Amino acid sequence: MVRIVLGAVVGYLLSLGSSVVWFLATHHDPTQRVSTRYLLASIVVGSFCSVATGFLAAVIGGSRRSSWGTAIILFATGGFGVAESLLVSRSGSLELTWVSIVVMVPATVFGGELAERRLEHVKK
Q1: Is residue 104 a contact partner of residue 54, using CB atoms and an 8 Å limit?
Q2: CA-to-CA distance for 98 and 118, rounded, in angstroms?
Q3: Most CB within 10 Å of its CB: which of 18, 42, 54, 93?
Q4: Mean of the pLDDT values across residues 104-121?
Q5: pLDDT digits (tens, 9 = 90+) for 41-85
Q6: How far is CA 74 from the centre of its chain?
Q7: Cα first-last separation, the chain
Q8: What's the distance, CA 83 to chain centroid?
């Protein structure tokens, strides 16, 4: 159980790190409105990073449950971000947050499924 939780937390930290690197590399403030081009680029890069994150979380945790844990953390933090933006600060753009919830969370789970298949294949 500890290994699964560790995989989920490490997966979340990898996801967070990839987001920080993306925003630093593109010199974009994630709370500001985005162009359609930037949004599409974020979806492509973010999907790849999320699949890799889910894969690594499952490998570290030894099971796809770790990638599900990472996805749950991502969903919860995204939901918190939406709630905070709408209820407290009443500012900022939510496009990237919604992309995180709608695209990146399932991509993380998919990466965990890929890892589970790979782990089953290696064990045989």
Answers
A1: no
A2: 30
A3: 54
A4: 90
A5: 999 999 999 999 999 999 999 889 999 999 999 999 988 888 887
A6: 6
A7: 23
A8: 18
Residue 83 has a CB neighbour count (10 Å cut-off) of 10
CB atoms within 10 A of CB 92: 17
Secondary structure element (H or E) that encloses residue 43, with its range: helix 36-61
Q: Which token pair is 71?
A: 């996805």
Q: What angle do CA 7, 13, 18 make, to 5 degrees?
A: 125
Per the listing, tokens 């500012």 go with: 91
Helices 64-84 & 36-61 angle (0-180, nearest 10) = 140
Specify the length of the chain in residues.
124
Q: How sure is the predictor about 25, in pLDDT bands with cuts at 50, 70 and 90?
A: very high
Closest CA to 73 of 2, 9, 4, 3: 9
- Single out the residue of 29, 20, 12, 14 nearest to residue 76, CA to CA: 12
Q: How many CB atoms lie within 10 A of CB 71?
A: 27
Which amino acid belongs to residue 41?
A
CB 15 within 8 A of CB 67: no
